[in-house]
Structures are given as C-alpha cells and as structure tokens.
Amino acid sequence: MPLAYLDHVNIQTANLAGMSRFYEDALGLEKGPRPPFVGFDGAWHYCGGKAAVHLVEVKKARDPKSVQIEHFAFRGEDLEEFLDTLREMKISYRIAIVPDVEIRQVNFHDPDGNHIEIQFSQHEEADLSPFDG
C-alpha cells in the first residue's frame, strides 16, 4: 500500500471565523467547498487545488499549551491490502465515508496515541467493518 502524499492537517478551534480569516488572509489559502458533515461546523482551505487545512469548530478552547492538531492524513492506494495489514498487526481502526464524495477514511492511532487517517478513493472496494485489534 504505497502512500501517495500528505493529504491534509485537521485543526480544532473554538474561533472558527478568526482562524478561517487567518488561513485565508495571512497564508493565502482560499476557503473552499467542504462536505456537509453532520454534528460539527468547519472550514476547508485550499493550497494548490487541494483542501490542505481542515478547520473543525469545537465549543471550548483548549489550553494554549496543548496540541490543536486533531489528526494528519495521507492518501493511499489498495484499501483491501492496507486493511489486511492493520488486522494482521492487530491495530484497531474505524472507517468513515465522507458525505457526497464517498471517500473512504481509515482512522487509527500510532503507539503514542496520535490519530492518523489514510484516505482512499470512493472506487476502492473492501470490507469496511471496524476492527478492534
């Protein structure tokens, strides 16, 4: 399962409007389309035609000394092979399907507890059942 590229960074914020303005005005990352996720608001900012910064609104601000990045994501190929590898290594995962675009997201944690997401095309077929290592 070769990784193709780092897909995006997901940042939680209690200041969605201010953060969105910052990424647009200071960094020139235009705000663009975002799937209609249910249960939380956010904004996607684009770099080179790709949604590189995903902002997710949270109700309460975190301690400024704590990490604000909720996860990082790679784009991958061969979903079935990748899931087989995770199961063989007894790594728990869950799968989410992005509304409207149907991208398959495999979510799991590294040994230190960091959330990693690997995205696969909506055309990839595999058993999408969660696995609890």
CATH superfamily: 2,3-Dihydroxybiphenyl 1,2-Dioxygenase, domain 1
CATH architecture group name: Roll
Low-confidence stretches: none
Number of strands: 8
The structure class reads alpha+beta
Q: From the 3D structure, determine the CATH topology.
A: 2,3-Dihydroxybiphenyl 1,2-Dioxygenase, domain 1
What helical percentage do the residues reach? Answer: 10-25%
In the residues, how many domains can be counted? 1
What is the makeup of the main sheet? 8 strands, mixed
The number of helices is 2
Report the C-alpha radius of gyration, rounded. 16 Å
Fraction of residues in β-strands: 35-45%
Q: CA-to-CA gap between the ends?
A: 20 Å
Elements, N to C (H/E): EHEEEEHEEE
Shape: globular
How are the strands of the biggest sheet laid out side by side?
2-3-4-1-5-8-7-6
CATH class label: Alpha Beta
Mean pLDDT: 89
How would you characterize the overall build of this protein?
The protein is built from two helices and eight strands; from the N terminus they run βαββββαβββ. With 133 residues, the protein is α+β, with helices and mostly antiparallel strands. The chain has an eight-stranded mixed sheet. The radius of gyration is 16 Å and the shape is globular. The mean pLDDT is 89.
For this entry, give a set of tags.
single chain, 133 residues, alpha+beta, 2,3-Dihydroxybiphenyl 1,2-Dioxygenase, domain 1, eight-stranded mixed β-sheet, 2 helices
Short recap of the structure:
With 133 residues, the chain is α+β, with helices and mostly antiparallel strands.
